[in-house]
Amino acid sequence: MSGKDVIIALDFPTGTETMAFLDKFQGQTQKPFVKIGMELFYAEGPQMVREIKARGHKIFLDLKLHDIPNTVKRAMSVLSNLDVDMVNVHASGACDMMAGALEGLTRADGTRPLLIAVTQLTSTDAETLKRDLLIDTPMADTVMHYAQNANKSGLDGVVCSPLEAAIVKEGCGADFMTITPGIRFAGGDVGDQKRIMTPEKAAVSGCDYIVMGRPITQAPDPVAAYTQAMQEFVGV
Ligand SMILES: O=c1ccn([C@@H]2O[C@H](COP(=O)(O)O)[C@@H](O)[C@H]2O)c(=O)[nH]1
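Above: inputs. Below: predicted complex with LLZGTKA7.
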C-alpha cells in the first residue's frame, strides 16, 4: 500500500452516527481511507471494523497499544484476525515492545497489516515535553529518536506531525512512512492540536498520509471538506 492519501478519523460515539456519515460518501468512486480510533472501537467493537471493511474502505485501526511486550504481542495477534490495513503502537513502549507487536501481528502465512508507531502526540509541544514529561530534548530530536527506534524494530513508519515528516524521511529513508495528524485548513479551528499544518503544506513536506477528523466530520458539508483536503494534499 503506497501513495499519498487522506485518512478520515471516524471519531464518533456510535455505529449509527458513523454509518450516517459514511453514507454521505456513497456517490464517490473511490471510498475514503478511514481511521477507527478508541471511541468508536470501544463503543462498537470488532463488528464495526468488519462492517466498514465490507463497505469497501481501507482501515487504519488506531488503538495505540502501549503495554509490556508480551501483552502487546498477544493483543496484536488477536488484531491480526481483523482485516485492517494499518495498526499502531506507542513508540514510547520501547523497542522490545515494538518487536513484540510485529511478531504478534504477523500471520502464519507471513502477511500482516502495516505497523506504525506514534512518536510524540500532535497535541503536545516543546513546553509539554519539558513541563509534563521532563524531556529536555527538542521536539524534532525526540520524534527522530522514536522514529529510528521504530525503524530498527522493523516497523513500517510513524505517526508524527507534518512538521517532522521531512526529518523522519531524512533519518529513516524515503520508504519509511509518515502518517500525520494535526492537519487543519487555513484559518480553521485548531482545537487541542499543537503541531499543525494545512493539507497543502503537508504535501510539500513529504507526508505519505494525512489524518483529518473534525475539519471533515464536523464540517457543514463533509464531502466538500474531504474533496478540498484531497485536492490540496493529493492534487485530485
Ligand atoms: O499524535 C496523534 C496521534 C493520533 N491522532 C489522532 O488523529 C485524529 C485527529 O483528529 P482531528 O479531529 O483532526 O484533530 C484523532 O483521531 C486523534 O486521535 C492525533 O491527532 N495525533
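Residues 9, 11, 37, 118, 121-122, 159, 181-182, 191, 193, 211-215 surround LLZGTKA7 (CB under 6 Å).
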